[in-house]
Amino acid sequence: MIIGCLQHTTGQLRNRKSGPSGTKSSERGETVTFADIAGVDEAKEELEEIVEFLRNPDRYTRLGARPPRGVLLVGLPGTGKTLLAKAVAGEADVPFISCSASEFVELFVGMGASRVRDLFARAKREAPSIIFIDEIDAVAKSRDGKFRMVSNDEREQTLNQLLTEMDGFDSNSAVIVLGATNRADVLDPALRRPGRFDRVVMVEAPDRVGREAILKVHVSKKELPLAKDVGLGDIASMTTGFTGADLANLVNEAALLAGRQSKAVVEKIDFIHAVERSIAGIEKKTAKLQGIEKAVVARHEAGHAVVGTAVAKLLPGQPRVEGNARALFKDLK
């Protein structure tokens, strides 16, 4: 047991040597801009104000305006929160300093707070700059109620240091903190008060028009040769509820399926099979239903088809009704 503890401690110390604050280097190599992002137009519009401040801070400070010190990006996993944060830095052409909040949680009490201090000190040296903290709920859970961090002094000290650093910004400080979470409900209220994370930007799953735009971006990036029967609008109608990450994976999966069959282009059937694999997994070819089992499943799936047809006018844009029976309805969004 003693040897195991020593090995774990050595590993923690070795990890800390990789960087003063556990952060990734400023990412200037691969520039991401708003043109690379689709399907989240409302979120991009809100973040453009941050870009404008970083480009022309004097335009605002001479009027006595104080820019938001922190912006919270809230949305489901895969909706593009990290990509949006990178795009803000890319559009403003400033250093992008990113880290995951889980990196602040250390074996020894006080180390997480030290990493937070190093992170903000570095951002101030490189100002104007952007700090991006992913999964910020890992260290910023509410200290009251059911989400209280029981007997975890390290997490609480780290959160307190984060709050102190954000309060320590000068009114004209050109450092913007972007935080990402899919659990805004568990965050400590002190983090979201004015002067800290002033803005909350919702990053939602795209509608049909957004999904089609995202598919176009990924098809264009991959220079994917498409067959004439492929309509990205049709594919978008089949993917209600898919996030940007899901759609990126879908395009890649369709290309893989076409490649396995040595096709010169990606056909519509490849996208359909990729959608089915994303929803239901790999087809179980050896699982054969017998007698009454087949009848029961048939009736069950027929029920999905009947209900899907009945509610088509009430719930436009729903390509499937939680089963293997699917229908395509025209999306009104």
From TrEMBL:
<dbReference type="Pfam" id="PF00004">
    <property type="entry name" value="AAA"/>
</dbReference>
<feature type="compositionally biased region" description="Polar residues">
    <location>
        <begin position="10"/>
        <end position="24"/>
    </location>
</feature>
<comment type="similarity">
    <text>In the C-terminal section; belongs to the peptidase M41 family.</text>
</comment>
<dbReference type="GO" id="GO:0005524">
    <property type="term" value="F:ATP binding"/>
</dbReference>
<dbReference type="GO" id="GO:0016887">
    <property type="term" value="F:ATP hydrolysis activity"/>
</dbReference>
<dbReference type="Pfam" id="PF17862">
    <property type="entry name" value="AAA_lid_3"/>
</dbReference>
<dbReference type="GO" id="GO:0009535">
    <property type="term" value="C:chloroplast thylakoid membrane"/>
</dbReference>
<comment type="similarity">
    <text>In the N-terminal section; belongs to the AAA ATPase family.</text>
</comment>
<keyword id="KW-0547">Nucleotide-binding</keyword>
<dbReference type="GO" id="GO:0006508">
    <property type="term" value="P:proteolysis"/>
</dbReference>
<keyword id="KW-0378">Hydrolase</keyword>
<keyword id="KW-0067">ATP-binding</keyword>
<keyword id="KW-0809">Transit peptide</keyword>
<dbReference type="InterPro" id="IPR027417">
    <property type="entry name" value="P-loop_NTPase"/>
</dbReference>
<dbReference type="GO" id="GO:0008237">
    <property type="term" value="F:metallopeptidase activity"/>
</dbReference>
<dbReference type="InterPro" id="IPR003959">
    <property type="entry name" value="ATPase_AAA_core"/>
</dbReference>
<dbReference type="InterPro" id="IPR003960">
    <property type="entry name" value="ATPase_AAA_CS"/>
</dbReference>
<keyword id="KW-0645">Protease</keyword>
<keyword id="KW-0482">Metalloprotease</keyword>
<dbReference type="InterPro" id="IPR003593">
    <property type="entry name" value="AAA+_ATPase"/>
</dbReference>
<feature type="domain" description="AAA+ ATPase">
    <location>
        <begin position="67"/>
        <end position="207"/>
    </location>
</feature>
<dbReference type="GO" id="GO:0004176">
    <property type="term" value="F:ATP-dependent peptidase activity"/>
</dbReference>
<protein>
    <submittedName>
        <fullName>ATP-dependent zinc metalloprotease ftsh chloroplastic-like</fullName>
    </submittedName>
</protein>
<dbReference type="InterPro" id="IPR041569">
    <property type="entry name" value="AAA_lid_3"/>
</dbReference>
<feature type="region of interest" description="Disordered">
    <location>
        <begin position="10"/>
        <end position="29"/>
    </location>
</feature>
